[in-house]
Write a structure and sequence with these properties.
The structure is a homodimer of 315-residue chains.
Chain A lengths: L5 E5 L3 H12 L3 E5 L3 H20 L8 H6 L1 E3 L3 H5 L4 E4 L5 H14 L5 E4 L7 H4 L8 E6 L8 E6 L5 H13 L3 E4 L8 H18 L5 H16 L4 H6 L5 H15 L11 H14 L5 H23 L3
Parallel strand pairs in A: 1-2, 1-4, 2-3, 4-5, 5-6, 7-8
Antiparallel strand pairs in A: 6-7
Helix pairs in contact in A: 1-2
């Protein structure tokens, strides 16, 4: 299957770079623009360093890193970068005014066929597209970083996103190996963000209550719950934990689980509580080593993706 | 390191069998008692089938399956099974009266050196040990099943559990390759259970709100959040998601995450909502295939454990 979709990446920080790899791997022509001109050169070097590792782990669809690098070009004006683009992925700063401004420029400069997609995690698409002529072609696709190793992507349409736009975006993301999690309607806190937020709320609450240390919490996920969740979701986990499936699970354990819901609202992640949690992290990892540890994390995600692929291809 | 601890398993269902494997692998002598006499024979066959797979994946500490099987014996009376035991792991039905009764029998029958440990997920240890002479030697060690593949174990002392008991139990579990998550004081909802419960609450809530399908929820964990959580915990995840670490992460994203906390309490997992979630599961997996899928899940956990071991041994 050859894919000759022309894609524009607007903003080439960590998120834009990672999207670029997803799109290159799918065979797209990727055009890049960033308000900082040197950013594209930096990105090119980082991407060039990552692609061979993906190829070695059979995570590049059999494509050649050098070929993919030739499909990536940067432009000094947004207008040139948008020329002929069918799909635009925006990754600028997380400020609603910035999103509003860049989407207004898309409205003037992008072709009438272009789907205009924001990576934002913090704003619903209606917050920055309402007054645009192209608003029916705008939506959010929020990745977990890096999307070339983490397939799930929150896809969030605004009230005025057309059905055709949503369908085209979803089809394109699937073509790129992503798995779109489609929100039925926009709501602050997308699906993955809400699930992650509830996990955070409980982590901080447990530390504040004095019941567990921050390290215990991380361990209980990393050496416990997170193992199953890396290949079966929570509903399937529950379904497999009772002979009669999920209804039986809830009959057995539902009351207990129900009763431990905290009713006193969210707690503040600040003050001494923050000092304690940050103290745990800084003792394990000085800030000066955070970049190395991010690379280690991405290397582990890569190895896990290769492992999962090998597992799924078993009979 | 040779470990000659004599362990007694009381109740040899799925949990008891899994504990038996953990203890055998550590070199222990395991004595088994179940109120159903045939249960021990069934367990023996199941364990015999699992051990070679663990050995092939280098998950048996280099030990020989046949040797381990010789270290396992079943007894027809509880008294015999408890003879000389230093560590007793109880895995009977999840009813507080059952726990009270079996622990009363331990009080009469077990040696004065034995640590008496319950696998319960639903009861704090004080609920079934208060009136016992041996109550200072009782506590809870609640596994995620199966513990021989999932290291994290909730360790919960009662107000009267002695420090020595807690320390001996923790040291023994570590010797067996488990990672104890020690609650500072007993509280309904142990650490892993609370974290899992909050995840469930949000999963059901998202389905009820109409924002996502049950399948989308499972996918967003399995192909998204769960990937990172299989090797880094939530605090480390956040710490690595901002250049300045977790304090910087909260400064950037904390307000958004804080605002999406649900303030309307827990919802009921029943009625049409249950029909919808169960409908999703039964469409994917008929109940008649649930045992096969549980075996698949355990096979995947085994492969993941082998994968993680290989990753950690890299430089």
């Amino acid at each position: 299957m050859e894919n000759t979709v022309r894609v524009t990446i607007v903003g080439i920080g960590a998120i834009g770079r990672a999207w670029t790899i997803s799109f290159l791997r799918a065979g797209c022509e990727v055009r890049i623009w960033d308000q900082i001109e040197s950013a594209a050169d930096d990105a090119q070097k980082i991407i060039q360093a990552i692609l061979p590792d993906l190829a070695r782990n059979n995570l590049l669809n059999g494509r050649d890193p050098a070929d993919l690098m030739r499909n990536m070009r940067s432009f000094s004006t947004l207008e040139e970068a948008l020329d002929g683009a069918e799909y635009v992925q925006e990754n600028t700063a997380e400020k609603v005014e910035v999103k509003q401004e860049i989407f207004s420029r898309f409205d003037q400069l992008a072709g009438s066929n272009a789907i205009l997609v924001s990576s934002t995690s913090g704003f619903v698409p209606s917050a920055f597209t309402e007054h645009l002529g192209c608003r029916d072609r705008c939506l959010v696709a929020h990745p977990l970083n890096p999307p070339y190793l983490i397939p799930a992507v929150d896809v969030v349409p605004s009230p005025w996103t057309s059905r055709e736009t949503l369908e085209r975006a979803v089809a394109f993301l699937r073509l790129c190996g992503q798995i779109p999690i489609i929100m039925k309607k926009e709501d602050p806190g997308f699906i993955t963000i809400r699930l992650q937020a509830m996990m955070y709320h409980e982590c901080w609450r447990l530390v504040k209550s004095g019941l567990a240390s921050p390290e215990d919490i991380d361990t209980s996920i990393r050496e416990g719950l997170g193992l199953r969740w890396s290949f079966i979701g929570p509903f399937e986990t529950a379904d497999l934990n009772a002979p009669g499936g999920i209804r039986d699970f809830v009959a057995r354990f539902g009351e207990n689980l129900h009763d431990i819901f905290p009713t006193d609202g969210p707690i503040e992640w600040s003050g001494e509580l923050m000092d304690q949690v940050e103290g745990y992290r800084r003792e394990r990892l000085p800030l000066s080593q955070i970049r190395d540890r991010q690379l280690w994390r991405d290397r582990r995600l890569l190895a896990l993706a290769a492992h999962k692929n090998a597992q799924s291809s078993l009979p």
